[in-house]
Design brief:
elongated; about 170 residues; alpha+beta; three-stranded antiparallel β-sheet; Arc Repressor Mutant, subunit A
Length: about 170
């Protein structure tokens, strides 16, 4: 599965939280509604939507006689959002981790090996293994690059479950 940027996650989430419909149910929605719900400016949001179309998560269909288009999740987009929802709302062993830094980081967690997360992107990392929860900056879950790394788990604007930053 592709790793999505913070802005891509904002658009994907807006497909679920706009004022009109929930794209996970397979319906299209006016693109303006998704842009409004994302909190991004229109130009940026349209670029992000274009990126998600190229990655196969969204489809945009022009509507004859209308100024706006309909945007919908593809099957890949629906599957991605359902997996994300399952990871956040159940005991499934995935945590969505956002790299808040301007450089790629390598996250290690027991049983997973190294997971590379590019700057400002989100990756799913299994962090509940054999019934054991892994604690950040312990031997079982940490960033390999030198630094004073910390984990933010409250008020994550990225849409991820947790965000990793370097205090240095």
């Amino acid at each position: 599965m592709d790793k999505l940027t913070k802005k891509e996650m904002m658009i994907m989430e807006a497909g679920r939280t706009n004022d009109y419909s929930d794209l996970i149910e397979g319906h299209g929605e006016w693109t303006f509604a998704i842009i409004d719900a994302s909190g991004l400016d229109g130009s940026t949001a349209r670029g992000v939507i274009s990126s998600l179309v190229k990655k196969g998560y969204l489809i945009v269909t022009p509507q004859p006689g209308e100024v706006d288009s309909l945007t919908a999740y593809t099957e890949k987009g629906i599957r991605f959002m359902r997996e994300r929802e399952n990871a956040k709302g159940s005991t499934k062993p995935s945590v969505w981790v956002f790299n808040g830094e301007s450089k790629a980081i390598t996250v290690y967690s027991d049983g997973n090996g190294d997971i590379r997360i590019r700057p400002r992107e989100i990756a799913a990392i299994p962090l509940v293994l054999n019934g054991e929860t892994h604690v950040f900056n312990a031997d079982s879950f940490f960033v390999k690059e030198p630094g004073d790394w910390y984990l933010k788990s409250q008020g994550c604007a990225s849409g991820a479950d947790v965000e990793i930053y370097n205090a240095k």
